[in-house]
Amino acid sequence: MLYKLLVRPVLSLFPPESSTGVLLRMLKGARRLPLVAPIIRAGHRVKDKSLEKEVFGIRFSAPVGVAAGLDRSGEYADLFSDFGFSFIEIGSLTPLPQDVEPRPRVFTLPRDKALLSRTGNPNKGVQQAISVLSRRNPNPRTPIRIGVNISANARSLTDEAIVSDYRTSFAQMYDFADFFVVNLTDSRRPDAGLQADTDLMSEVLDELLEMRLVYDGYKPILLKISSDLMPDLLDTILDYALLSGIDGIVAGGPAGRSAELKTSPQRLQELGEGGISGRPAFQGMLETVRHISARSKGRLPVVACGGILSPEDAEMALEAGASLVEVYSAIWYQGPKIAKKTHDHILHLHDR
Ligand SMILES: Cc1cc2nc3c(=O)[nH]c(=O)nc-3n(C[C@H](O)[C@H](O)[C@H](O)COP(=O)(O)O)c2cc1C
User: Fold this and answer.
1) Nearest atom within ligand 1 for CA of residue 123
2) Is residue 190 scored above 60 in pLDDT?
3) 51 Cα: distance to centroid of ligand 1 (angstroms)
């Protein structure tokens, strides 16, 4: 309530990317003051054994996490933990820092409860993430699982360079990840990315799977796909995942422009190209989750991501076969309380 009445109206005066960054930095600063973190935790963390889940060999304290793109280097992981999220996908991380798309590149579509983005994965590179994560001093009583989402640098254009980028990020981040998410999507063009070139995709993934054999400690590898892939392409990716030993799927990234929108065509034309997150991504996500569960006969755990804006949406995604859910747009539209509200809702369902 406080977020919707007071915080979001102020944030809406500025471009979403800047205002979210300012808000996160302010909260992180405030968290250093005495009692602030315990107060946030007391108001947001829902501790209950029945919320706990083991998925792809990892114990999660609850099913709601933060999707990739909000915290690229892991600076806010412990803040999100205080707000009740049980895991976060940091990144997308690339070996070298990059920031290629001009701003503004994230826009709100309030009539659709959506965000339009073409960020092109700006991030400070793996070395910065390593330096942030190695300085962390997490509260052992409120662990947050770290998923490291990896991608290739935009300037890596040849197949060799792309494979090498994924290898580098995977190797360097291995000790800092609880699990990996290989980002097969392209935030600027939902129909592009590694998912559109399955030969290159399998070349990258074969390398990572082979590298994992020689490392200490098994780190699950998940694939992140868009939820509006052509059915044949989706099945090719799923068959590869099932045969090769991929541990799970994050479904999915932002939807394409084919999503039905209430925002006027003129406004969309003004804003230009980009992927659509939030409400318009929900239906496609749900169908994709159902399809993955059916085709894999439940053998590929799914993290549902796309348009989950309320506890009821999360409930539907879990019922469709997802093991975990993650949110991005909901944090913009509803505030960080979405994790607590969803966990309370799930407990209420358990009680019925
Ligand atoms: C501004 C913005 C930046 C994003 N950056 C990334 C990214 O770097 N890597 C990634 O895999 N997904 C990225 N995403 C996609 C989100 O992780 C998520 O898949 C998408 O927003 C759908 O979820 P939602 O409807 O809950 O927002 C980004 C989304 C937005 C809106």
Assistant:
1) 8
2) no
3) 25
